[in-house]
Amino acid sequence: MDNTEKQVGFAEVKAILDLLVKGREDNLPFVHGDAFGWADKAMLANAVARPFGSDPAFRLIDPSLVGVGRAKETNIYIALTVGIGGFERMPFGGPYATPEQLAVIAEWIDDGMPD
Predict the structure, then answer these.
(1) What is the pTM of this model?
(2) pLDDT tens per residue across span 33-58
(3) How far apart are alpha carbons 67 and 61 in whole angstroms?
(4) How far apart are CA 40 and CA 10, in angstroms?
(5) Domain locations in the chain?
(6) At 49, which helix (H) or strand (E)?
(7) What span, in angstroms and rounded, lies between the C-alpha atoms of 4 and 67?
(8) Is the pLDDT of residue 70 over 70?
């Protein structure tokens, strides 16, 4: 990235995730557990999905995959593209993230999850 390009920040990622679950916000903790969410960057960085109380739980963003060009290996990216742990692509039934939205999320993770 050169100096003329704006770095993706948490606000852009949050806006994408909020759009994807619009109208379902109240149901998210019930479906995924109390450690799931993105109200702020720290919450997303530590978010764990436990679909319907199942095991194993899935940490959305493994810290070892941040800032090293491996965003597409994170559970959040996999869940948004093909599904994970036997569950369908998220959010269930759509709307699904566009390739452009997925690229923003991946860039943010690959850039070290800047504010």
Answers:
(1) 0.86
(2) 677 789 899 999 999 887 777 777 88
(3) 11
(4) 8
(5) 10-110
(6) strand 48-49
(7) 20
(8) yes
